[in-house]
Amino acid sequence: MKKFLLITAAVILAIIALSSVGHIVGLAISLFIVYFSYKQFMATNSTVGKIIWAIIGLIGFSGLLGSLPALAGIAAIYILYTGYKNWDRNKETPPVVNNEEDPFKGFEREWEKLKNQR
C-alpha cells in the first residue's frame, strides 16, 4: 500500500512538473532579461540609457511575476529527485555487528578485563 501511494504521488508530481515546463522556460528567460538589464543599467553612464535599461528591466520583471507558477513545477521536480534518490534506502540491510566486538555477548570477558585493569 505504501508503494502504491508513493507511485501515485510520483505520477501527480510528474504531471505538475510537465505542466509547468512552459512557466519554467518563461521564468528562465525573464530572469536572464532582468539580470542583463541590471548589468547594463549599472554599466551605462547616460541618463537616457539608464531609463531604457530600467524599462527593459521592468518588462522582464513583469514577465518574472507572470511565471511564478514555475515555482510549483520546480518544487515538484525537486521532490521527485529526492524521492528517486532515496527510493531504495529502506531496503538496505543494517550493518552486521561482529560478535567478537560486541560487549553484550561476552559480559564475563569484559568484566574480567575491567577487574584486571585495577
Question: How would you describe this structure to a colleague?
Answer:
This protein has 118 residues and is mainly alpha-helical. It has one domain (2-89). The chain has helices at 2-19, 21-43, 47-66, 70-85, 107-117. The two termini are 58 Å apart. 7% of the residues are buried. The model has no long low-confidence stretch (mean pLDDT 86).
Residue-averaged pLDDT: 86
Q: Uncertain regions: pLDDT < 50 for 5+ in a row?
A: none
Instruction: List the domain count as a whole number.
Output: 1
Q: In angstroms, what separates the terminal alpha carbons?
A: 58 Å
Question: How many separate helices?
Answer: 5
Q: Largest sheet, if any?
A: none
Assembly context of the chains: single chain
Q: Using only CA atoms, what is the Rg?
A: 29 Å
Strand segment count? 0
SS-based class: mainly alpha
Listing every helix as H and every strand as E from the N terminus to the C terminus, the arrangement reads HHHHH
- Beta fraction: under 5%
Helicity range: over 70%
Shape: elongated
Q: Keywords for this structure?
A:
mainly alpha
Which helices and strands occur, and which strands form pairs?
Layout: H1 2-19, H2 21-43, H3 47-66, H4 70-85, H5 107-117
Helix pairs in contact: 1-4, 2-3, 2-4
Provide a compact summary of the structure.
This protein is mainly alpha-helical and 118 residues long.
